[in-house]
Every structure is written in C-alpha cells, then in structure tokens.
Amino acid sequence: MQIWVDGDACPKKVKQILFKAVERTKIQLILVANHVSHIPISPYIKMIIVPSGFDEADKRIQSDANRGDLVITADIPLASEVVAKGCFALNPRGTFYNKENIQQQLAVRNLMAQLREQQLISGGVDTFNAQDSQAFADQLDRFLAKVSNGMR
User: Fold this and answer.
1) Of the candidates 12, 78, 18, which has an alpha carbon nearest to the alpha carbon of residue 45?
2) Strand, helix or coil for residue 2
3) What is the mean pLDDT of the chain?
4) Is 91 in a helix, a strand, or coil?
5) Dihedral Cα 73, 107, 62, 71, nearest 10 deg
C-alpha cells in the first residue's frame, strides 16, 4: 500500500500530519503536484512533479495508484475514479469516500457547481481550520491502524 497526495491544493497542516504518519508506519507517500513543494528528506516520502495544466496531478494519481492504495484529495471526481479502481480516498477535512457515498458526493458537487455557474449561489468551501485538521488526523490514524492489522 502507498499513500498518494493530490498536492496542488492539499493544506500544509495535512501534509505535516501525513509526513509524521509515514515516518511512524514506514508506508510510502507520493506527493503529486505541478510545482515543487518542501518535503522532508525521508526514504518514505517522494514527490512527482507533473506538467502545469488542468488536472495533470489527478491524471497521474489516477493512472499510477493501485488497488488498496490511499489517495488524499479534495477533488471529488478524482476520488470517484480511484474508488472505482479499488483505492481508498480521504478528503483533507476527514471525509472518507467509498463506493457507498461517492456517487452522492459527486452529485452534490455537480449541483453546487451548476448553481454557482448560474449565479444562484456564490462562495465556496469554508476555510480549512483546526477541527478539519483533527478530523483528518483521526480518520488517517483509524485507517492506518486497520491496515496494520490487515483488516482493509
């Protein structure tokens, strides 16, 4: 199992939580982004830089992630693709995407995009905060405990 991170929009605090977790668990973490980001020197952490362009990081993660891998992303279409492929997907705010909830999440995302496009609503997601960070850390710890016990 590897952990893939959609690095272009991943909050710094989430990356820090992940860096500590992979050092503790010795699981490979791959940060995919279209710009260089500071990562600690570690045999468990690597970065892949993709060309600038729409969804280039998403495309790379989708093609390279394997069944059983964990993908960290707030991008619901990417989450949908990797869940269909047999991966696990976790939002930086602590929401797990799975086969039972991903279609509903995708439908809500599409509806909200349509409403914004038609200027019926405005705004976006609330600012990432300490509660989001804690929710992410809790879900990640639970997932990694299950994986270490062999109970995927």
Assistant:
1) 18
2) strand
3) 89
4) coil
5) 30
First to last CA, the chain: 11
Q: For tokens 């939002």, name the residue.
A: 91
Helix (H, G, I), strand (E, B) or coil at 128: coil
Task: Name 5's bridge partners.
Answer: 31, 72
Model's pTM, two decimal places?
Answer: 0.85
Q: What is the 3-state secondary structure (H, E, C) of 13-41?
A: HHHHHHHHHHHHHCCEEEEEECCCCCCCC
**Whether domain 2-148 has CATH 1.10.10:** no
Long-range contacts of 76-82 (CB under 8 A, 24+ apart): 76/102, 76/105, 76/106, 76/109, 77/106, 77/109, 78/6, 79/105, 80/105, 80/106, 82/4
**What is the pLDDT at residue 73?**
95
**pLDDT score for 36:** 87
